[in-house]
Specification:
This protein is α/β, with parallel strands linked by helices. The protein has two domains: 2-85, no CATH class; 93-171 and 214-293, Vaccinia Virus protein VP39 (Rossmann fold), CATH 3.40.50. It contains eleven helices and twelve strands. The protein has helices spanning 2-10, 12-45, 64-73, 93-106, 132-138, 149-158, 193-196, 198-201, 218-225, 241-247, 264-274; strands spanning 60-62, 83-85, 116-120, 141-145, 163-165, 168-170, 176-182, 207-217, 232-235, 256-260, 279-284, 288-293. The strands form three sheets. A seven-stranded mixed beta sheet has the order 5-4-3-9-10-12-11, sandwiched between helices. It has a three-stranded mixed beta sheet with strand order 6-8-7. The chain has a two-stranded antiparallel sheet with strand order 1-2. Strand 9, helix 10 and strand 10 form a beta-alpha-beta unit. The longest helix is centred in the first third of the chain and has 34 residues, at 12-45. It is globular, with a radius of gyration of 22 Å.
Amino acid sequence: MSSFLQYAWAKRDKWWDKRDVAAAMAGRQLIRTQYRFAGMLAALAKGLAPARTNAQPLKKTSNPFIEYEIGRLRLRSAPIATTMRESYAQCNDDIIVEAFLRARLSMTGRSMSSVRYLEIGGNHPVQTSSTYLLYRAWGARGYIVEANAGLAERLRAVRPGDQIVQTAVSNLSDKTLSFHIHELDELSSLSRESIVDPSAVGMQGKIARVETVPNLHINDFFDAHIHEPLDFMSIDIEGLDLPVLQALSPAHRPTVLQVECMDQALLDQLRQTLEPRGYRLAAMTDVNAIFVQD
């Protein structure tokens, strides 16, 4: 018994840390459940589903990180409200993009509802979306490119105000290409090499199937579909972002450009490509580099 007590005492700091981790995980799960339940109640209250085409007021909520730390440190709350804004992108990138656009449009007198965007690599219509905040809260509209037919259909159902284009967009002119469907949809790509290496994608998994999908060269896509200046373009196509941007004609210049980027070598190449075209690196998150026109 004494040996066990000595062992337990020696490991007390490690177990205490695990207790904090477990408590934080339980807290996040509780918050997630509360929000999803609130969403279902909102859908029932509206009869069918939340409004999909009209802009809705920006949502705010109590900041759970602040509340957790106040409880952990046994502090008294400040009298100043500290809320969190709604965000749908992977690392709150959409709030950063929204801030750039609001500042730019305020100087020209344009409303945020006039924002036009292009998202290459749509995937989920809400979660990890770089454009859903603009769509839902401001009534902005645009184009979403998704090569996976099933995901494109889901995007059409959830975001009827956007134009959903079911095609691959690449730096190639082939009419069709092989599209590698990862078992985790977010990681699907034209490039097999970019998704089979766990160190490259940051997650375990494998290719579930390969489909033949239609393809458009990036400039052919712009010529066919984009007939107005773009305020924002997001590109996230798992390993092919750089060659597509290099192939993009300098005539096509979205005001704000977001590119998936998680290593310094790629960032250097992106800057070499975009800075001569009048872009500057304006923000970085864990997964994206955000460039803005000078």
